[in-house]
Amino acid sequence: MNPFAGILLIALGSIGAASFYVPFKKVKSWAWESYWLSQGVAAWLIAPILFAFIFIPSGELMPILREAPMKAKLMAMLFGALWGFGGLTFGLSIRYLGVALGQSIALGLCAAFGTLIPPVIAGENLFSSTAGLLTILGVAITVAGIGVIGFAGSLKSKEMSEEDKKAAVKEFALKKGILIAIFAGVMSACFNFGFEAAKPIEEIAKNHGTDPLFLKNPSLIFILLGGFVTNFIYCGYLNIKNKTYRDYYTVSGSVLINNLFFTFLAGILWFLQFHFFGMGSSKLPEGMAVFGWSILMALNIAISNIWGIFLNEWKGAGKKTIVILIAGILILILSTFVVKLG
Description:
Elements: H1 3-19, H2 32-55, H3 61-67, H4 70-97, H5 99-121, H6 130-159, H7 162-168, H8 174-188, H9 190-197, H10 199-207, H11 217-241, H12 247-250, H13 253-283, H14 286-289, H15 292-310, H16 319-341
Protein backbone atom coordinates (compact mmCIF):
# COMPACT_ATOMS: atom_id res chain seq x y z
CA MET A 1 0.00 0.00 0.00
CA ASN A 2 1.26 3.45 -0.95
CA PRO A 3 -1.34 6.24 -0.73
CA PHE A 4 0.91 8.84 -2.38
CA ALA A 5 1.60 6.58 -5.36
CA GLY A 6 -2.10 5.69 -5.54
CA ILE A 7 -3.21 9.32 -5.73
CA LEU A 8 -0.45 10.08 -8.25
CA LEU A 9 -1.63 7.25 -10.51
CA ILE A 10 -5.25 8.43 -10.27
CA ALA A 11 -4.05 11.96 -11.08
CA LEU A 12 -2.37 10.67 -14.25
CA GLY A 13 -5.71 9.20 -15.28
CA SER A 14 -7.44 12.47 -14.50
CA ILE A 15 -5.09 14.34 -16.82
CA GLY A 16 -6.14 12.01 -19.63
CA ALA A 17 -9.85 12.30 -18.82
CA ALA A 18 -9.82 16.07 -18.50
CA SER A 19 -7.84 16.41 -21.73
CA PHE A 20 -9.66 13.95 -23.98
CA TYR A 21 -11.98 16.53 -25.60
CA VAL A 22 -9.10 18.79 -26.65
CA PRO A 23 -8.00 16.69 -29.72
CA PHE A 24 -11.52 17.07 -31.16
CA LYS A 25 -10.64 20.67 -31.96
CA LYS A 26 -8.27 19.32 -34.63
CA VAL A 27 -10.97 17.23 -36.35
CA LYS A 28 -11.99 18.58 -39.76
CA SER A 29 -15.23 18.32 -41.76
CA TRP A 30 -16.89 15.73 -39.49
CA ALA A 31 -20.16 16.13 -37.61
CA TRP A 32 -20.21 15.63 -33.84
CA GLU A 33 -21.79 12.17 -34.07
CA SER A 34 -19.08 11.02 -36.49
CA TYR A 35 -16.08 11.98 -34.40
CA TRP A 36 -17.79 10.93 -31.16
CA LEU A 37 -18.38 7.43 -32.54
CA SER A 38 -14.83 7.24 -33.88
CA GLN A 39 -13.31 8.03 -30.50
CA GLY A 40 -15.72 5.51 -28.98
CA VAL A 41 -14.28 2.74 -31.14
CA ALA A 42 -10.84 3.55 -29.70
CA ALA A 43 -11.95 4.17 -26.12
CA TRP A 44 -14.59 1.47 -25.62
CA LEU A 45 -13.56 -1.34 -27.97
CA ILE A 46 -9.88 -1.22 -28.90
CA ALA A 47 -8.26 0.21 -25.75
CA PRO A 48 -9.87 -2.15 -23.16
CA ILE A 49 -8.87 -5.26 -25.10
CA LEU A 50 -5.42 -3.91 -26.01
CA PHE A 51 -4.55 -2.91 -22.43
CA ALA A 52 -5.88 -6.22 -21.06
CA PHE A 53 -3.66 -8.18 -23.48
CA ILE A 54 -0.66 -6.08 -22.49
CA PHE A 55 -1.09 -6.16 -18.71
CA ILE A 56 -2.71 -9.55 -18.07
CA PRO A 57 -0.22 -12.49 -17.84
CA SER A 58 0.46 -14.02 -21.25
CA GLY A 59 -2.20 -16.48 -22.36
CA GLU A 60 -4.44 -15.84 -19.33
CA LEU A 61 -6.91 -13.27 -20.68
CA MET A 62 -9.14 -15.66 -22.62
CA PRO A 63 -9.38 -18.17 -19.74
CA ILE A 64 -10.30 -15.28 -17.40
CA LEU A 65 -13.06 -14.11 -19.74
CA ARG A 66 -14.38 -17.66 -20.13
CA GLU A 67 -14.36 -18.49 -16.41
CA ALA A 68 -15.85 -15.19 -15.23
CA PRO A 69 -19.45 -15.70 -14.00
CA MET A 70 -22.01 -14.92 -16.70
CA LYS A 71 -24.09 -12.89 -14.24
CA ALA A 72 -21.12 -10.63 -13.46
CA LYS A 73 -20.39 -10.14 -17.15
CA LEU A 74 -24.01 -9.33 -18.01
CA MET A 75 -24.45 -6.96 -15.04
CA ALA A 76 -21.22 -5.17 -15.93
CA MET A 77 -22.50 -4.75 -19.50
CA LEU A 78 -25.90 -3.57 -18.25
CA PHE A 79 -24.40 -0.88 -16.04
CA GLY A 80 -22.05 -0.04 -18.91
CA ALA A 81 -25.04 0.45 -21.22
CA LEU A 82 -26.70 2.71 -18.63
CA TRP A 83 -23.45 4.59 -18.22
CA GLY A 84 -23.43 4.88 -22.03
CA PHE A 85 -26.33 7.32 -21.82
CA GLY A 86 -24.25 9.37 -19.40
CA GLY A 87 -21.16 9.14 -21.59
CA LEU A 88 -23.16 10.18 -24.62
CA THR A 89 -24.75 13.20 -22.95
CA PHE A 90 -21.44 13.98 -21.26
CA GLY A 91 -20.02 14.65 -24.70
CA LEU A 92 -23.03 16.81 -25.51
CA SER A 93 -22.64 18.80 -22.28
CA ILE A 94 -19.05 19.69 -23.25
CA ARG A 95 -20.27 20.50 -26.76
CA TYR A 96 -22.72 23.09 -25.39
CA LEU A 97 -20.88 24.32 -22.26
CA GLY A 98 -17.20 23.82 -22.98
CA VAL A 99 -14.59 21.65 -21.27
CA ALA A 100 -14.54 23.50 -17.94
CA LEU A 101 -18.23 24.15 -17.26
CA GLY A 102 -19.52 20.93 -18.81
CA GLN A 103 -17.11 18.62 -16.98
CA SER A 104 -17.51 20.42 -13.63
CA ILE A 105 -21.27 19.95 -13.49
CA ALA A 106 -21.39 16.42 -14.90
CA LEU A 107 -18.48 15.07 -12.84
CA GLY A 108 -19.71 16.66 -9.61
CA LEU A 109 -23.04 14.88 -9.98
CA CYS A 110 -21.32 11.68 -11.07
CA ALA A 111 -19.32 11.60 -7.83
CA ALA A 112 -22.38 12.35 -5.69
CA PHE A 113 -24.87 9.97 -7.25
CA GLY A 114 -22.28 7.23 -7.61
CA THR A 115 -22.48 6.96 -3.84
CA LEU A 116 -26.08 8.05 -3.17
CA ILE A 117 -28.00 5.75 -5.53
CA PRO A 118 -26.80 2.31 -4.29
CA PRO A 119 -28.11 2.67 -0.69
CA VAL A 120 -31.37 4.16 -1.99
CA ILE A 121 -31.89 1.17 -4.30
CA ALA A 122 -31.03 -1.16 -1.40
CA GLY A 123 -33.82 0.42 0.65
CA GLU A 124 -31.57 1.97 3.30
CA ASN A 125 -32.90 4.87 5.37
CA LEU A 126 -30.17 7.47 4.92
CA PHE A 127 -31.66 9.67 7.64
CA SER A 128 -31.19 7.01 10.32
CA SER A 129 -27.39 7.06 10.54
CA THR A 130 -24.48 9.48 10.60
CA ALA A 131 -23.12 7.90 7.43
CA GLY A 132 -26.44 8.42 5.64
CA LEU A 133 -26.71 12.02 6.77
CA LEU A 134 -23.17 12.73 5.59
CA THR A 135 -24.03 11.22 2.21
CA ILE A 136 -27.10 13.44 1.93
CA LEU A 137 -25.06 16.46 3.05
CA GLY A 138 -22.45 15.70 0.40
CA VAL A 139 -25.08 15.55 -2.33
CA ALA A 140 -26.59 18.83 -1.06
CA ILE A 141 -23.14 20.44 -1.24
CA THR A 142 -22.81 19.10 -4.79
CA VAL A 143 -26.09 20.70 -5.81
CA ALA A 144 -24.97 23.96 -4.17
CA GLY A 145 -21.66 23.83 -6.06
CA ILE A 146 -23.46 23.22 -9.33
CA GLY A 147 -25.78 26.13 -8.58
CA VAL A 148 -22.78 28.40 -7.99
CA ILE A 149 -21.06 27.26 -11.20
CA GLY A 150 -24.34 27.62 -13.10
CA PHE A 151 -24.62 31.19 -11.78
CA ALA A 152 -21.05 31.86 -12.96
CA GLY A 153 -22.05 30.47 -16.34
CA SER A 154 -25.05 32.78 -16.55
CA LEU A 155 -22.84 35.77 -15.69
CA LYS A 156 -20.37 34.65 -18.32
CA SER A 157 -23.19 34.45 -20.86
CA LYS A 158 -24.16 38.07 -20.10
CA GLU A 159 -20.64 39.48 -19.99
CA MET A 160 -19.13 37.84 -23.04
CA SER A 161 -19.95 39.00 -26.54
CA GLU A 162 -21.51 36.53 -28.94
CA GLU A 163 -18.25 36.55 -30.86
CA ASP A 164 -16.25 35.59 -27.75
CA LYS A 165 -18.75 32.84 -26.87
CA LYS A 166 -18.53 31.28 -30.31
CA ALA A 167 -14.74 31.58 -30.33
CA ALA A 168 -14.51 29.67 -27.03
CA VAL A 169 -17.39 27.20 -27.50
CA LYS A 170 -18.87 27.13 -31.01
CA GLU A 171 -22.32 25.91 -29.94
CA PHE A 172 -22.53 27.49 -26.47
CA ALA A 173 -26.03 27.04 -24.99
CA LEU A 174 -26.23 27.52 -21.22
CA LYS A 175 -29.72 26.20 -20.32
CA LYS A 176 -29.60 23.23 -22.69
CA GLY A 177 -26.04 22.42 -21.63
CA ILE A 178 -26.79 22.46 -17.88
CA LEU A 179 -29.82 20.17 -18.27
CA ILE A 180 -27.78 17.73 -20.35
CA ALA A 181 -24.85 17.89 -17.89
CA ILE A 182 -27.16 17.05 -14.97
CA PHE A 183 -28.50 13.98 -16.78
CA ALA A 184 -24.97 13.01 -17.81
CA GLY A 185 -23.73 13.21 -14.23
CA VAL A 186 -26.50 11.01 -12.86
CA MET A 187 -26.17 8.32 -15.54
CA SER A 188 -22.37 8.39 -15.54
CA ALA A 189 -22.45 7.22 -11.93
CA CYS A 190 -23.44 3.80 -13.29
CA PHE A 191 -19.80 3.23 -14.26
CA ASN A 192 -18.90 2.85 -10.60
CA PHE A 193 -21.78 0.36 -10.20
CA GLY A 194 -20.30 -1.57 -13.11
CA PHE A 195 -17.04 -1.94 -11.20
CA GLU A 196 -18.95 -3.25 -8.20
CA ALA A 197 -20.91 -5.75 -10.31
CA ALA A 198 -17.66 -6.95 -11.89
CA LYS A 199 -15.92 -7.85 -8.60
CA PRO A 200 -16.20 -11.62 -9.37
CA ILE A 201 -14.31 -11.01 -12.63
CA GLU A 202 -11.50 -9.39 -10.63
CA GLU A 203 -11.35 -12.47 -8.39
CA ILE A 204 -10.94 -14.74 -11.41
CA ALA A 205 -8.21 -12.45 -12.76
CA LYS A 206 -6.47 -12.58 -9.38
CA ASN A 207 -6.58 -16.38 -9.40
CA HIS A 208 -4.85 -16.36 -12.78
CA GLY A 209 -1.90 -14.42 -11.40
CA THR A 210 -2.86 -10.91 -12.56
CA ASP A 211 -0.94 -8.12 -10.84
CA PRO A 212 -3.24 -6.28 -8.37
CA LEU A 213 -2.48 -3.10 -10.32
CA PHE A 214 -4.38 -4.44 -13.34
CA LEU A 215 -7.25 -6.45 -11.84
CA LYS A 216 -9.89 -4.06 -13.22
CA ASN A 217 -8.74 -4.35 -16.83
CA PRO A 218 -10.81 -7.47 -17.69
CA SER A 219 -13.89 -5.84 -16.12
CA LEU A 220 -13.46 -2.78 -18.32
CA ILE A 221 -13.91 -4.93 -21.44
CA PHE A 222 -17.51 -5.73 -20.44
CA ILE A 223 -18.45 -2.35 -18.92
CA LEU A 224 -17.22 -0.43 -21.94
CA LEU A 225 -18.76 -2.87 -24.41
CA GLY A 226 -22.16 -2.04 -22.90
CA GLY A 227 -21.39 1.69 -23.18
CA PHE A 228 -20.28 1.33 -26.78
CA VAL A 229 -23.58 -0.30 -27.77
CA THR A 230 -25.58 2.65 -26.42
CA ASN A 231 -23.40 5.23 -28.15
CA PHE A 232 -23.21 3.24 -31.40
CA ILE A 233 -27.01 3.09 -31.67
CA TYR A 234 -27.50 6.82 -31.06
CA CYS A 235 -24.60 8.05 -33.20
CA GLY A 236 -25.57 5.62 -35.97
CA TYR A 237 -29.10 7.02 -35.82
CA LEU A 238 -27.76 10.57 -36.15
CA ASN A 239 -25.46 9.50 -38.99
CA ILE A 240 -28.47 8.19 -40.91
CA LYS A 241 -30.86 11.01 -39.94
CA ASN A 242 -28.38 13.78 -40.80
CA LYS A 243 -26.77 11.81 -43.66
CA THR A 244 -23.44 12.34 -41.95
CA TYR A 245 -22.44 8.72 -42.63
CA ARG A 246 -20.87 10.30 -45.70
CA ASP A 247 -18.28 11.86 -43.37
CA TYR A 248 -16.38 8.58 -43.29
CA TYR A 249 -15.75 8.31 -47.04
CA THR A 250 -16.22 11.74 -48.68
CA VAL A 251 -13.28 13.52 -47.05
CA SER A 252 -9.82 13.39 -48.60
CA GLY A 253 -7.33 10.76 -47.48
CA SER A 254 -5.25 13.26 -45.53
CA VAL A 255 -8.32 14.57 -43.67
CA LEU A 256 -9.45 11.01 -42.91
CA ILE A 257 -6.04 10.13 -41.45
CA ASN A 258 -6.01 13.39 -39.48
CA ASN A 259 -9.48 12.75 -38.05
CA LEU A 260 -8.78 9.13 -37.16
CA PHE A 261 -5.54 10.11 -35.44
CA PHE A 262 -7.09 12.82 -33.28
CA THR A 263 -10.29 10.93 -32.46
CA PHE A 264 -8.31 7.80 -31.52
CA LEU A 265 -5.98 9.98 -29.44
CA ALA A 266 -9.05 11.36 -27.66
CA GLY A 267 -10.34 7.85 -27.07
CA ILE A 268 -7.06 6.60 -25.60
CA LEU A 269 -6.79 9.66 -23.34
CA TRP A 270 -10.32 9.02 -22.09
CA PHE A 271 -9.62 5.33 -21.41
CA LEU A 272 -6.48 6.11 -19.41
CA GLN A 273 -8.55 7.53 -16.55
CA PHE A 274 -9.93 4.09 -15.71
CA HIS A 275 -6.70 2.22 -16.42
CA PHE A 276 -4.84 4.44 -13.95
CA PHE A 277 -7.85 4.52 -11.60
CA GLY A 278 -7.62 0.75 -11.30
CA MET A 279 -3.88 0.96 -10.66
CA GLY A 280 -4.21 3.79 -8.15
CA SER A 281 -7.07 2.18 -6.23
CA SER A 282 -4.98 -0.94 -5.67
CA LYS A 283 -2.37 1.21 -3.92
CA LEU A 284 -4.79 2.86 -1.47
CA PRO A 285 -5.25 1.42 2.04
CA GLU A 286 -8.68 -0.13 2.66
CA GLY A 287 -9.89 2.81 4.74
CA MET A 288 -8.86 5.24 2.00
CA ALA A 289 -9.93 3.16 -1.00
CA VAL A 290 -13.55 4.33 -0.68
CA PHE A 291 -12.32 7.79 -1.62
CA GLY A 292 -10.80 6.58 -4.91
CA TRP A 293 -13.82 7.49 -7.05
CA SER A 294 -14.10 10.91 -5.37
CA ILE A 295 -10.40 11.57 -5.91
CA LEU A 296 -10.78 10.75 -9.61
CA MET A 297 -13.84 13.00 -10.04
CA ALA A 298 -12.33 15.86 -8.00
CA LEU A 299 -9.09 15.83 -9.98
CA ASN A 300 -11.03 15.63 -13.26
CA ILE A 301 -12.96 18.76 -12.26
CA ALA A 302 -9.80 20.64 -11.30
CA ILE A 303 -7.79 19.70 -14.40
CA SER A 304 -10.69 20.29 -16.81
CA ASN A 305 -10.96 23.84 -15.52
CA ILE A 306 -7.25 24.38 -16.06
CA TRP A 307 -7.89 23.34 -19.68
CA GLY A 308 -10.82 25.75 -19.77
CA ILE A 309 -8.45 28.60 -18.95
CA PHE A 310 -5.93 27.53 -21.63
CA LEU A 311 -8.73 27.24 -24.20
CA ASN A 312 -9.97 30.76 -23.38
CA GLU A 313 -13.44 29.47 -22.51
CA TRP A 314 -13.77 32.24 -19.90
CA LYS A 315 -12.05 34.96 -21.89
CA GLY A 316 -14.00 38.19 -21.54
CA ALA A 317 -15.66 37.18 -18.27
CA GLY A 318 -15.26 39.62 -15.34
CA LYS A 319 -13.21 39.04 -12.18
CA LYS A 320 -16.37 38.56 -10.11
CA THR A 321 -17.51 35.78 -12.45
CA ILE A 322 -14.13 34.01 -12.22
CA VAL A 323 -14.15 34.23 -8.42
CA ILE A 324 -17.66 32.72 -8.34
CA LEU A 325 -16.54 29.99 -10.74
CA ILE A 326 -13.55 29.09 -8.56
CA ALA A 327 -15.77 29.05 -5.46
CA GLY A 328 -18.17 26.67 -7.21
CA ILE A 329 -15.32 24.37 -8.26
CA LEU A 330 -13.96 24.23 -4.71
CA ILE A 331 -17.44 23.46 -3.36
CA LEU A 332 -17.82 20.63 -5.89
CA ILE A 333 -14.44 19.15 -4.98
CA LEU A 334 -15.34 19.35 -1.28
CA SER A 335 -18.67 17.64 -1.93
CA THR A 336 -17.04 14.57 -3.50
CA PHE A 337 -15.13 13.90 -0.28
CA VAL A 338 -18.08 14.56 2.02
CA VAL A 339 -20.17 12.10 -0.01
CA LYS A 340 -17.51 9.40 0.24
CA LEU A 341 -17.00 10.15 3.95
CA GLY A 342 -20.63 9.16 4.35
